[in-house]
Structures are given as structure tokens and as C-alpha cells.
Amino acid sequence: MTVRRPTLRTLRRLGGLRTRLVVAFVLVALVSGVTATALAYRESRNAVLERKQDAVQTEFRNRVEQAAADFDVPADEVSLTRFARRIADGLGDDTLVVAQYRSITAASDQSADRTRITPALRQRVRTHNGMSLQRVEWRGSPYLAVGTPITFDRADPGKPGAPSGLDAFAVTSLRAELEATTGVADAVRDGILPVVLLATVLGLLAAGTVLRPVRELGRATRRHAAGDYSSRVRVRGRDELADLARDFNQAAGALEASIDELRAQDERAKRFVADVSHELRTPLAAMTMVATVLDEDAASLPPDTAHAARTVSEETGRLARLVDDLMEMSRFDSGAARLHLARTDLAEAVRATLSLRNWTDRVETVLPSGITARVDRRRVDVIVANLVGNALRHGAPPVTLTLSADPAGDGLTVEVADRGPGLPPEAVDQVFDRFYKADAARTRSEGSGLGTAIALENARLHGGTIEAANRPGGGAVFTLRLPRHPAPEEDR
Amino acid sequence: MPHVLLIEDDVSVRDGMELVLRRHGYDVSTAATGEDALALLADPAGPAAELAVLDLMLPGMDGFEVCRRLRATGSTMPVIMLTARGDDSDIVHGLEAGADDYVVKPVTAAVLEARIRAALRRAEPSRSAQGEDHAGLLIDRAGLTVVKRGTTITLPPTELRLLLELSASPARVFSREQLLESVWDHDFLGDSRLVDAAVGRLRAKIEDLPARPRYIQTVRGFGYRFGPV
């Protein structure tokens, strides 16, 4: 798990907010850049071409009008060539002019290819009886072809005159104009890489401004999860993230307040139990002391009085044990319980616990010698006495106690099992609860109801555990596990 | 019969203890405050108390202070402190003030009496052996005196018993549990802090440098031993 975590984290980062923001920025930059460039390219190309067309048309018309003034029909090939050359004179070097009179054609440059003037254009000039133009592709280069019929003088201005049968065409290259606009596209292509880089940087910066507050929130949330409810985030600016941070702080404040309140209540409740127990001690001290007198003199009292005296004495003892247990519990609750560790032979300690209570003959033990541990002898006695006492009271014989060391050598186990009916299934988890009693009929047992809870707290204080379970063959089994070398609190 | 002084402010507890102890043959004096108790003990015409049962929570001067003042007068009277809280800090504090043993309220008459008997037994003179010289520390087992460089050292019975027990077998290591059983008469679950506190008090009286003891040495993880010097 620990090995895989960084990989998972990296993978998650790849699909993370930062990556998505950067990708979005780059895409937006690319799409808007390419679209804007495409539109600008198209517009500028059209503008350049139209200006060229207009210029060519105007110039061509002027030249044709000048040349046509001195030209007579019918024409022969020589006059037609001269006519074409005159038009071409003013139109620039790369312009080819072709004149056509019926079936005779002549060009300003005899060697030039005349196929650039398409039949479609000729046809349109003829049918429209006006100037027409066409863009053509020839040998991979764009050309503009213009054609006009030459008409007789107009009788009525505003209407074209009658066609003379003479047509003039000019073909001029558009290469220069297109090259100028292609430069725009090239510039865009060269500019894409810097734009992408810039967009990446901007994306990272934007991600940073978004992610920093998000990360801070994450950190604060994790601290809360770890129990530090005082953690807050800084509120920067007035954006949605600042609102979120403010809301988080408010929620955290409310949470902290209610947790403080709960803790204070819990503290008061525990304090109350400790105070009550303590206040009970003084009257109990007097009662416990004189209870002996009742026991000693009971024999000489009338039967009822004797019974009453013995009951008072017994119940005083029970009350004293209950108050003792309550005090012990409140020491655990307040963290005042301390371990007094000493190297202890566990087999010896268990034997002493059993013999002190006259249980030696009632418990079958497996106590291998040589298992030592640094434990608090008194607390181990409390635990073992509780587990064995419960087994003897609630279980059925034979009660067995098995001591064993963990194979690894850093822990030990004490297992107390009986052959009784076992724990009710729902009791297995609750048996360590305070004042838990599995069976209502058992409420008048010898214990205070805190014994198992105190045993568990004692085990935990050592860094150990107690588990309750039912044996497959019937009967309950309690397993105490203790570390053999708990964290040194009191080294002697 | 042994004479016991009960210092306890709660009248019922005091009367209860008095009743039980008297029934079992003790002579009993009582005091409700620490001031009264000290005055009673200082009075030459007063009762010759052999042991004090001292409640820690007293109005006015508390039990710790009473114990300290009692020891300051050179009294070696055994003191059993009676604590209502049973908190570790109370116990350690009380033992440092010079108490020999402690019991936690509520305590049964049987336990209190057993503790009183054990403490008194420690105070009984033992007549086992003769004087010994342990590198300048003269221990007279017959006269129960300890003399260092010509000066007699006054030791309360618990500390004296502890010193006698340890010095009887120089260089032998005693575990705290062994000492609790032999000196204090406690069962195996006795509080080993009693031993540590008594060793601390004893070292303060017999060692030149209590922080680097020559006579009563700590064997870490096991217990204590006397010497070898």
C-alpha cells in the first residue's frame, strides 16, 4: 500500500485540476488562435485580391479604350497583334494580352500559352457583352483572366453599344498577392508553439491561484479529520473560493464549538463521577471500619438483627468495591492512571493471583516457565483476577488458563476459557461496556459491573488488548494480549 | 498495649477507627487537626503514642506537612497515611514526607490492623547479632543504632529494618517484592514505591552523595543491594 500510494497519487494528479486547466487553456488558445487567423487570412486574401482585380479591370478598360479608338475593323492578324501589344504596354511585364476578332487571335507575347483564357470566359464575354473575369490555376500558380468585348460607340449612354466582334483578354499573375497573404498563415504557424507555451504557463498560473486555496482547504480538512479542530484557512480576495474558505471556517468554528461543548460536558460528567465517588469515600470509610463490629457481634444478636447486621456489613463491602472501581475508572478517564513496570515472571504472577483468591484448585493452568515481561504487577493481577473470576462465576468448569509467548517473542497471551454456555452472540461486543450485564438475573453478582471494563483499560494501558469470543465447542474464551516490552514510561 | 494516635478530621471515621482499635486492645488517642496532633506529641505529659495513623486531607495543616514536621523533630514513630484519593501523586508525596506505609479509604478494620501490626513489628528491637563496620558505617544490630563518623544517625523503624535487611547479606540483590514482603509484611501486590521512597530517605541520611550511593545501590531492572563497599 505504501509503495503503491505515490503511483496512485501521480496518476490522480495527471487527471487532476491542474492538468485539466492547462489542457483547457491550450485548447482555447489554439482554437481561438486558429479561428482568428483563418478568418483574418480569408478576409485579407479577399481584400488583396479584390483590390488587384479592381486595379486590373480599371487599367485594362483604360488601355482597351485607348487602343480601340485607333483600331478599325475588320482586322487582320498584324493589326490585331499591334492592338494587343498596345494594350499590354501599360499593363506590366507579366501581363499577357490576347485580342480576338472572329476566328483570328493575336497575343502580345506570341510564345505565351493562351489556354489560361478559358472557353468559359470567352463565352461569358460574348453573351454578357461586358467585362468578365475569372481566376484560373495554371501550372500551380493563380492567375486572373479579364475579358471585354469592344463595342461600337454608344448611341445611348448607359447601354452597351453594339458588339464589334473584337474581344480583348488580359491574363495577369496573382502570385505576388497570394504570397503576401500566405505569409500571414506562415506567421501563425510559427507563432503556435510560443502561444501554446504561453497558454500552458498561463494555465499553470491560473491553476495555481485556484489550486492554492483548494490545497489549503484540503490540508485544513485533513487536520480536522486528525482531530485538530482549531485549524482554519486564510480568506483571500472576494471570489467563490474565498466564499468557500469563509464557509469552511464558519463550519469549522461551529464544529469546534460543539466539540468543545461536548468535551466540556463529558469532562463535567467524568468529574462528577470522580467527585461523587470521592465524596462517598468518607462515609464509606466510617461504615467499612465499623462493619467488622457488626460481623463480630452478629452471633450474639437476635436472628433478625444478626441478619440485618450481616447484610449491612456485606453491602458496605460491595459499596466500597464499587466506589473503588468507579475511582479507578475515573483515573483511566482522566488519564491519571500510571504504569509501574517491573520485570515479572508471568507464570509466577498468575499463580500468585490464583492462590491469593484460593482459586488454584478450581483452574486448570498451562504455565510454561521463563515467560517474563515488563508489566505492572498490580494491573496484571486485576486483569487475570477479573477474567478468571468471570469464568468461575458465569462459565462452567473446567476453567482453563493458558499462558503462551508469541513466536515472534515480543508479546504474550493469556487465554481464559470455560465450558459454560458461552456469551450470547450480541454480548460479544458489549461485554467490555461499563455496567454491562449479559443476563438481567445476574445483576446481583459479586462484581461492580466495571470489572471487565477496568480489565480492558488495564490491558490498553500496557498497549495490549483483551478479546472476547465463543469457543466452537461451547464456552466463552477471553484472550489477553500484552506486549513484553511496553514503551518505557518508568524505567527502573 | 500498643498506643496508636489517630489524626483524622471526620468524626465518624475517627470514632469508627477508635472503636475498632480499642475493641482489639489498642490504646487510642485522637486528634482532629494536624496542629492538635503535633501539640499532643510534643506534650511530655501526653500519651506515649507508638504509631500514628494520619489522614492526608486535614483542615489547616495537611497531612504531608504534619509528617514532615514530625520527622523534623527527630521522631522515628511509624506513620501510616490514610488517603482518600489514592492518587499516585498523593502517595508519592506522602512517602517522600516520611510516611512508612499507606492505606486508601475506605479501608477495612482487618487491613488497617494488619498494617499497624506490621509497622509496629518493624519498630520492635531485634536482638540477632553484634555490631558491624561497613566501611565507616557502624551498624549495631543489638542496640539498633547506626553511627557514621562518630555521629549517631536516627532512623525510623522502617528505614532501619530496611538497612538491617539489606546489610545482613552484603552484595546480595533484593527485589522490591522481596523487600515488601520481608520489611513491610505486604503481599506480593504491595506498592514497590514504598521501597523506593524508603531507600530514598535512607540514602539521604547515610550516603555522602545520595545521587551516587555507595551503600545502597540500585541494580536496574532487579532491585537493590547493600554494597559491596
TrEMBL record, chain A:
<dbReference type="Pfam" id="PF00512">
    <property type="entry name" value="HisKA"/>
</dbReference>
<keyword id="KW-0812">Transmembrane</keyword>
<dbReference type="InterPro" id="IPR050351">
    <property type="entry name" value="BphY/WalK/GraS-like"/>
</dbReference>
<dbReference type="InterPro" id="IPR003660">
    <property type="entry name" value="HAMP_dom"/>
</dbReference>
<dbReference type="InterPro" id="IPR004358">
    <property type="entry name" value="Sig_transdc_His_kin-like_C"/>
</dbReference>
<dbReference type="InterPro" id="IPR003594">
    <property type="entry name" value="HATPase_dom"/>
</dbReference>
<dbReference type="GO" id="GO:0005886">
    <property type="term" value="C:plasma membrane"/>
</dbReference>
<dbReference type="InterPro" id="IPR036097">
    <property type="entry name" value="HisK_dim/P_sf"/>
</dbReference>
<dbReference type="GO" id="GO:0030295">
    <property type="term" value="F:protein kinase activator activity"/>
</dbReference>
<feature type="domain" description="Histidine kinase">
    <location>
        <begin position="275"/>
        <end position="486"/>
    </location>
</feature>
<keyword id="KW-0902">Two-component regulatory system</keyword>
<feature type="domain" description="HAMP">
    <location>
        <begin position="208"/>
        <end position="260"/>
    </location>
</feature>
<dbReference type="Pfam" id="PF02518">
    <property type="entry name" value="HATPase_c"/>
</dbReference>
<keyword id="KW-0547">Nucleotide-binding</keyword>
<keyword id="KW-0418">Kinase</keyword>
<protein>
    <recommendedName>
        <fullName>Sensor-like histidine kinase SenX3</fullName>
        <ecNumber>2.7.13.3</ecNumber>
    </recommendedName>
</protein>
<dbReference type="GO" id="GO:0000156">
    <property type="term" value="F:phosphorelay response regulator activity"/>
</dbReference>
<keyword id="KW-0808">Transferase</keyword>
<keyword id="KW-0067">ATP-binding</keyword>
<keyword id="KW-0597">Phosphoprotein</keyword>
<dbReference type="InterPro" id="IPR005467">
    <property type="entry name" value="His_kinase_dom"/>
</dbReference>
<keyword id="KW-1133">Transmembrane helix</keyword>
From TrEMBL, chain B:
<keyword id="KW-0238">DNA-binding</keyword>
<keyword id="KW-0902">Two-component regulatory system</keyword>
<dbReference type="InterPro" id="IPR016032">
    <property type="entry name" value="Sig_transdc_resp-reg_C-effctor"/>
</dbReference>
<protein>
    <submittedName>
        <fullName>Response regulator transcription factor</fullName>
    </submittedName>
</protein>
<feature type="domain" description="OmpR/PhoB-type">
    <location>
        <begin position="129"/>
        <end position="228"/>
    </location>
</feature>
<dbReference type="InterPro" id="IPR039420">
    <property type="entry name" value="WalR-like"/>
</dbReference>
<dbReference type="InterPro" id="IPR001867">
    <property type="entry name" value="OmpR/PhoB-type_DNA-bd"/>
</dbReference>
<dbReference type="InterPro" id="IPR001789">
    <property type="entry name" value="Sig_transdc_resp-reg_receiver"/>
</dbReference>
<feature type="domain" description="Response regulatory">
    <location>
        <begin position="3"/>
        <end position="120"/>
    </location>
</feature>
<keyword id="KW-0597">Phosphoprotein</keyword>
<keyword id="KW-0805">Transcription regulation</keyword>
<keyword id="KW-0804">Transcription</keyword>
<dbReference type="GO" id="GO:0000156">
    <property type="term" value="F:phosphorelay response regulator activity"/>
</dbReference>
<feature type="DNA-binding region" description="OmpR/PhoB-type">
    <location>
        <begin position="129"/>
        <end position="228"/>
    </location>
</feature>
<dbReference type="Pfam" id="PF00486">
    <property type="entry name" value="Trans_reg_C"/>
</dbReference>
<dbReference type="Pfam" id="PF00072">
    <property type="entry name" value="Response_reg"/>
</dbReference>
<dbReference type="InterPro" id="IPR011006">
    <property type="entry name" value="CheY-like_superfamily"/>
</dbReference>
<feature type="modified residue" description="4-aspartylphosphate">
    <location>
        <position position="55"/>
    </location>
</feature>
<dbReference type="GO" id="GO:0005829">
    <property type="term" value="C:cytosol"/>
</dbReference>
<dbReference type="GO" id="GO:0000976">
    <property type="term" value="F:transcription cis-regulatory region binding"/>
</dbReference>
<dbReference type="GO" id="GO:0006355">
    <property type="term" value="P:regulation of DNA-templated transcription"/>
</dbReference>
<dbReference type="InterPro" id="IPR036388">
    <property type="entry name" value="WH-like_DNA-bd_sf"/>
</dbReference>
